[in-house]
Every structure is written in C-alpha cells, then in structure tokens.
Automatic annotation (TrEMBL):
<dbReference type="InterPro" id="IPR027368">
    <property type="entry name" value="MnmE_dom2"/>
</dbReference>
<dbReference type="InterPro" id="IPR018948">
    <property type="entry name" value="GTP-bd_TrmE_N"/>
</dbReference>
<dbReference type="InterPro" id="IPR005225">
    <property type="entry name" value="Small_GTP-bd"/>
</dbReference>
<feature type="binding site">
    <location>
        <begin position="265"/>
        <end position="268"/>
    </location>
    <ligand>
        <name>GTP</name>
    </ligand>
</feature>
<feature type="binding site">
    <location>
        <position position="20"/>
    </location>
    <ligand>
        <name>(6S)-5-formyl-5,6,7,8-tetrahydrofolate</name>
    </ligand>
</feature>
<dbReference type="Pfam" id="PF10396">
    <property type="entry name" value="TrmE_N"/>
</dbReference>
<feature type="binding site">
    <location>
        <position position="76"/>
    </location>
    <ligand>
        <name>(6S)-5-formyl-5,6,7,8-tetrahydrofolate</name>
    </ligand>
</feature>
<feature type="binding site">
    <location>
        <begin position="221"/>
        <end position="226"/>
    </location>
    <ligand>
        <name>GTP</name>
    </ligand>
</feature>
<feature type="binding site">
    <location>
        <position position="221"/>
    </location>
    <ligand>
        <name>K(+)</name>
    </ligand>
</feature>
<feature type="binding site">
    <location>
        <position position="225"/>
    </location>
    <ligand>
        <name>Mg(2+)</name>
    </ligand>
</feature>
<dbReference type="InterPro" id="IPR006073">
    <property type="entry name" value="GTP-bd"/>
</dbReference>
<feature type="binding site">
    <location>
        <position position="245"/>
    </location>
    <ligand>
        <name>K(+)</name>
    </ligand>
</feature>
<dbReference type="GO" id="GO:0005737">
    <property type="term" value="C:cytoplasm"/>
</dbReference>
<feature type="binding site">
    <location>
        <position position="421"/>
    </location>
    <ligand>
        <name>(6S)-5-formyl-5,6,7,8-tetrahydrofolate</name>
    </ligand>
</feature>
<keyword id="KW-0963">Cytoplasm</keyword>
<dbReference type="GO" id="GO:0002098">
    <property type="term" value="P:tRNA wobble uridine modification"/>
</dbReference>
<keyword id="KW-0479">Metal-binding</keyword>
Length: 421
C-alpha cells in the first residue's frame, strides 16, 4: 500500500516526538534521511539530514512486513520533541512521496492485513480513552482478543452442529443415527447459555467503559456547589447566598478507587423565579432522572421524593453546624463525612458492575442478540431451516469480529482514533 506517516506521540513541545511510517518503501524513506538501517527491530542512533542539512539527531528503527503493528513495512523516527523538527521531517517525507495518515489509518491497515479483528480494535480505542484502572483492565481484555477467541469457539460449535444437520438432510434415506437431532439441540442449548451470559454482563461492562453519573440534587442553597468544589479541590461552581445561582449542570470527572464517576452539580429544585432558572431546574430534573445514582442533599436530610430511586443516598449538608445527625452528613467546609459518602457511593456502583462481561459496545451486544435470536425455536423447524438458522447465527459471530460486514462500522470506529494510531 502507499506510504503514510504521522506523529505517534501527541503534537506539541515535549521530550520526544515519534514519527511512524507504514507502507511500501517505509524503510527506504527512513534510510534516505538517516542512512542504512541494517537489522529490523534494532534502534540506531543517527544524524537525520536532508540534502546535507542536519535536522536532528535521532533514534531510527524499522520492522519488516508481517512483523509490525500494521502488517506492512514500518519505520519509526524518534526525534527531539520540538514542533519545528517534526514539521521539517514531515515536509521531507511529503517531498519523498509519502502522505499524512488519516485518523486511525494505521489501525485500519492492521485490520485489513489481518493483524487485528474488529473487537480488538474497539478494545484498543477503549484503551486509548481509559481514565481508570477498571476501564484499563476491561479494554485490555478486548485488545487481547478474548472476545474473538470465544466467538471462534462458539462458531466452531455452530459449524459442528450444522454439519450434523446437513448429514441428516443429505442422507435422510440412509442409515444415519436417530440421535443426531438431539445432539444438535443439546449443543445449541449449551451455546445459548454461554452467549446469554455475555449478553447479561453487557450493562455492567458498559458502565465500566462509560463510567457512572452521580447527580447532586436538592433545594437551593443546600450546598450542592460547595460539595462539588470540595470534591474537585478547586472552585468549579459559583457559591453564593443568593438562591438559584446554578443555572446549568456542571460536571466533575472523578476516579473513585478505579471507577470512573461523573458528579453533576444541578440547579436547586424549587419553583423557578424566571425562564432561565426554570430551564435550569428542568434540565436538572432530566439529568437526575438519567443518572445512575443521586445524592439527595439538604440541610435536613430530606430526599426529593419524585426523583428517589433504589441505591440513592440521602445526605445532610452543613455537618459543621454542630447539630446532631442520625444519618450520613457532610461538611464542604471541613471535609467531614466526605470519605464516608464516597465509600457508600463506591459500594453501590461496585455492586452494579458485578458479573461484568467482556462485551461493552452496543454493536457487539447486537450481534450476540442476533445469534441468540437465530437459534430460537429450532426444535419446531424442519431440518433444512435448522441448518439455515445455524448459518445465520454463525454469520452474526463473523460480524462480531469483523470477518464480514466490517465496512459499515470502520469509519465510525476510527473517527475517534488519533492520527498516529
């Protein structure tokens, strides 16, 4: 394929900038800048120059076709991290006939060359976006090919079952054992259980990948913005004695013992005084309803009845006022009770990710549901239709890993990748 290049490190000033090349002539292009690179997978310290003009001193290495990330010939130039150096090298590569890569194009080539399947690519995207330990661990399960291996096991069972059905159809008038249909149905029943287990674990895995939303709700001046600022350890929200200060939802991303949590500071829930506050209150109610968990915060620890859901926390604010409190109370001024509140939230959200599977994307879940649906009611079908249903389920598993139908998803997946990946 044609020669592409991109920075594999974030653009801008830094210690090191890595430019990656992939495609026909990657090694030759690098050698035109740094001189001979004899052995693959060996790093060489070289002067990088164009037409006798020294540009930088670099580390250079190359990977042979079939032994690289993309499956193509690949070269890397490790430069000093000055933007002007990266720009100068990019200009030199363009003059040699290379072109800048598109977003995710290196990974797209890895897929097209059979180095990665579609589920692994989705896992790689999740890994690049991971902010917490739980997200990292889940993403690595995807990158490692675990889902593809399971899909291949399931597909092998379907193929074996389909072969038994085909035998019963093709040799119906000959001496074929009567137990063949029973063996097929037993194998399908076992397979349905295994696939259904992954479907059942989808919601928990999706929550790990996307994170939890925790809405802080309550009446005006309950201390919601002060609590958010305390959690952020900086002033994110305006705190005022005047009721109705918060008009929009303010979000705080938080790593809660390895779990991604977004706290939402919402407008005080009351009868609004004007159209702007009314819109803020309505938006607050909508976000609170959609959140995974709500902190009902007030001076008297009263829940917002119409928004209460199982697992919510009722918290008394202003714990520093010296008044007795039977339940959970916090002080945004002193920090008292904050750790207890976070521990309660952690216990609640941790319980919701128990049994998380490896399937964490809607696309993946849809293909597994399609496979299950194709296997419904086989006992009532004639043998010819049983065989067709088994092939339909196998096709769903092929789409799961991108063996067929991948073109419909590639652009959407790679649009979130950086240029150098």
């Amino acid at each position: 394929m044609d020669l592409i290049f991109a920075e594999a490190t974030p653009p801008g000033r830094g210690g090191v900038s890595v430019i990656r090349l992939s495609g026909d002539g990657a090694r030759e292009a690098a050698e035109r800048l740094v001189g001979p690179l004899e052995l693959p997978r060996h790093a060489y310290f070289r002067d990088l120059a164009q037409d006798g003009d020294l540009i930088d001193q670099v580390l250079a290495l190359w990977f042979a076709q079939g032994s690289s990330f993309t499956g193509e010939e690949v070269a890397e130039l490790h430069l000093h991290g000055a933007p002007v150096i990266a720009r100068r090298v990019a200009r030199a590569l363009i003059e040699m006939g290379a072109r800048p890569a598109e977003a995710g194009e290196f990974t797209r080539r890895a897929f097209l060359n059979g180095r990665m399947d579609l589920a692994e690519i989705e896992g790689l995207g999740d890994l690049l976006a991971a902010e917490t330990e739980a997200q990292r661990k889940l993403a690595l399960r995807g990158v490692s090919g675990e889902l593809a291996r399971r899909a291949e096991e399931w597909r092998a069972l379907l193929i074996e079952a389909g072969a038994l059905v085909e035998v019963s159809v093709d040799f119906a008038d000959e001496d074929v054992p009567d137990e063949v249909p029973d063996r097929v149905f037993e194998a399908v029943a076992e397979l349905r259980v295994r696939i259904q287990k992954e479907i059942d674990g989808f919601q928990a895995a999706e929550r790990i990948r996307e994170g939890f939303e925790v809405a802080i709700i309550g009446p005006p001046n309950a201390g919601k913005s002060s609590l958010l600022n305390r959690l952020a350890r900086r002033e994110m929200a305006i705190v005022s004695e005047v009721a109705g200060t918060t008009r929009d939802v303010i979000e705080l991303r938080f790593d809660l013992k390895g779990l991604a949590v977004t706290f939402l500071d919402t407008a005080g829930l009351r009868e609004a005084c004007d159209a702007v506050e009314s819109a803020g209150v309505e938006r607050a109610r909508g976000r609170a309803r959609d959140a995974d968990l709500r902190i009902h915060l007030s001076r008297d620890a009263q829940a917002v009845t119409d928004l209460w859901m199982p697992g919510d926390l009722t918290v008394r604010s202003h714990a520093d006022d010296g008044l007795p409190s039977a339940g959970l109370s916090v002080s945004s001024l002193t920090g008292a009770g904050i750790d207890n509140m976070l521990a309660d939230i952690q216990r609640e959200v941790s319980g919701r990710i128990a049994g998380a599977g490896i399937v964490s994307h809607d696309r993946q879940r849809a293909e597994l549901v399609g496979a299950i649906t194709a296997l419904d009611g086989l006992e009532r079908l004639p043998a010819e239709l049983v065989a067709e249903s088994l092939r339909g389920a196998a096709s769903c598993l092929d789409r799961l890993v991108g063996q067929i139908g991948a073109d419909d998803y590639l652009d959407a997946i790679f649009s979130s990748f950086c240029i150098g990946k």
